[in-house]
Amino acid sequence: MKSEVYKITEDGASLGILLKESEKTASYANLNKKQTIKLRLLAEEMITMLPELLSFNKGEFWTECNGKTVELHVSLVPHENLTAEKREKILSVSSDGKNAAEKGIISKIKIAVEFMLIDYENCYSSAPAFFAYGVGGDINARPGVWSLDTYRNKAKKDNDEKWDELEKSIIANIADDVIVGLQENKVEITVKKSF
User: Fold this and answer.
1) Is there a contact between 169 and 46 (Cβ–Cβ < 8 Å)?
2) Which residues are paired to 57 by β-bridges?
3) Closest CA to 113 of 42, 43, 180, 59
4) Looking at the predicted structure, is the pLDDT value of residue 148 above 50?
5) What confidence tens digit (pLDDT) does each residue in 157-185 have?
6) Which of 2, 86, 115, 172 could form a disulfide with 123 if both were Cys (CB 3.0 to 4.6 A apart)?
7) C-alpha to C-alpha distances, 86 to 107, 123, 127, 130, 136, nearest whole angstrom
């Protein structure tokens, strides 16, 4: 089952739709109370990354449900092409000119979206190291896709600070995967969870 597709903006009322729709989807999937809370937590985590992204993108949200497998989807289309130069102007607002928000998994997912919205052919050369960590690496990996599962598997293998960061993350501990993919001029974020 696919829910209605909702237009979302950076305002709180618009983003509240994600919470309401996740609860409707939980009911439709016959999730118990604990599972419903986990789905709501995933929706809340998704909301935390959206206000800044929606300031330069048009957004849509929907859920998909097949039995007790649920996906939360956000599709973003830039108001105008976000080039690396425009992204640097956004970052220049920071006193040191760096993206201080590059810590935490939610921030990394958000930055992966930003890099896919930039001039895609050149985004790999200017992307931070964590971006490459979530791209490729297994047989099922698709080009132009950043995956939390791929990132998680590499971090577990390396057992470094990336793994410590994942252990502290709500979304990394609840979601089966978070996929950021490029499709034509859209970037889609998909949070997947099987209950």
Assistant:
1) no
2) 78
3) 180
4) yes
5) 887 777 777 888 889 899 999 988 877 67
6) 115
7) 19, 13, 14, 21, 27
pTM: 0.77
- Are the C-beta atoms of residues 105 and 171 closer than 8 Å to each other? yes
Structure tokens at 30: 């016959």
Residues 6+ apart with CB under 8 A from 102: 108, 111, 128, 130
Name the residue with tokens 């789905």: 39
Closest CA to 182 of 86, 114, 101: 114
Residue with tokens 């390396």: 158
Q: What is the pLDDT of residue 95?
A: 40
- Give me the pLDDT at residue 113, please: 78
- pLDDT for 153 beyond 90: no
